[in-house]
Specification:
alpha/beta, two-stranded antiparallel sheet, 9 helices
Length: 306
């Protein structure tokens, strides 16, 4: 696990979360949904252009990431720092859904939207899995290998508690990623050390690259499992903007009570593109020319393509 333990008493630090941070600009549910449509167009075009990437999970997590970066996080794209001092911090653990994250970061002001055209190209900052080595604003850890994001997030959350910050650390994980043992080591540690400024979300679409999650390695009763590990468990529909916003508010309210928070987010792999929805084969397969055109015909252009 990626923790600094120089201060052996760090786990006794407690914080109160009486203040719920509001973003500088709140978008309406309608505006968020329109932005999601544009982000989905970006995803299809990015993956198609290089015939490489992971459209399925990216499309499924789009609504969550759009809501998170526009109406939930306390952050300032113009002054991004690796430390994230006095800001909320987000870690993408399932790094293969980078197309969705890159689009949301760009359309939130972290880097030019035009840079999306460099996705997965040699020498570009927008590699298939995010990496801080390219000095890309918004990215703090490499997340090509699954299972590591929660550990890094816990270290960050503990650092914020030691500094007396009243900010939050967020993570996103795939349900197939929960088959990694490091996730459960980190989950156990976070609960034991009362890391209660941490909100983790699971993309619960039931699909992974080899097929249905239940057929590959069943996760059992996830809600009961996380609760048994000592976490506060919430659930939400990952395609209902109003529900996403309300659940994230509930998650923040649940912080500061001695437990980390996990949200089981039900999504549909390939959401928004009829022939991709619910099909694990689109986990890591790019669309053909015809498929790209069909997908784009189903997604409204709302902010202009890059």
């Amino acid at each position: 696990l990626l923790f600094t333990t120089a201060c052996g008493h760090f786990f006794s630090v407690r914080m109160e979360y009486s203040v719920i941070f509001e973003p500088k600009k709140m978008l309406s549910v309608e505006e968020l949904n329109k932005l999601s449509s544009q982000v989905r167009r970006d995803i299809i075009r990015m993956v198609h252009a290089v015939q490489s990437g992971h459209p399925g999970g990216s499309l499924g997590c789009t609504d969550f990431l759009v809501a998170l970066y526009n109406n939930v996080l306390k952050h300032n794209p113009a002054s991004f720092s690796m430390q994230g001092t006095n800001e909320d911090v987000f870690f993408l653990s399932n790094g293969h859904i980078s197309p969705a994250w890159y689009s949301v970061l760009a359309r939130s002001g972290y880097f030019p939207v035009s840079e999306l055209a460099t996705f997965r190209k040699l020498g570009a900052r927008l590699q298939g899995h995010p990496t801080p080595a390219e000095h890309l604003p918004g990215v703090r850890i490499a997340s090509g290998s699954l299972g590591q994001g929660l550990s890094a997030a816990i270290g960050c959350a503990l650092g914020k508690k030691l500094s007396g910050e009243k900010t939050f650390v967020y993570t996103l994980h795939g349900d197939g990623e929960l088959q990694e043992g490091q996730i459960w080591e980190a989950a156990m540690f976070a609960a034991a050390k009362k890391v209660d400024n941490l909100i983790s979300t699971i993309d619960y679409n039931g699909k992974q690259i080899d097929g249905p999650v239940d057929e590959v390695v069943s996760l059992g009763d996830l809600a009961a499992k996380w609760a048994a590990f000592g976490w506060t468990v919430l659930k939400m529909d990952g395609h209902n903007m109003s529900e996403i916003l309300k659940t994230m508010e509930d998650a923040r309210a649940a912080c500061g009570q001695g437990k980390p928070v996990v949200i089981l987010m039900t999504t549909i792999m390939g959401k928004g593109v009829s022939f991709m929805e619910g099909n694990h084969k689109w986990h890591g397969s790019p669309p053909s020319n015809e498929q790209k055109d069909k997908a784009l015909s189903e997604l409204t252009e709302t902010l202009g393509d890059y």
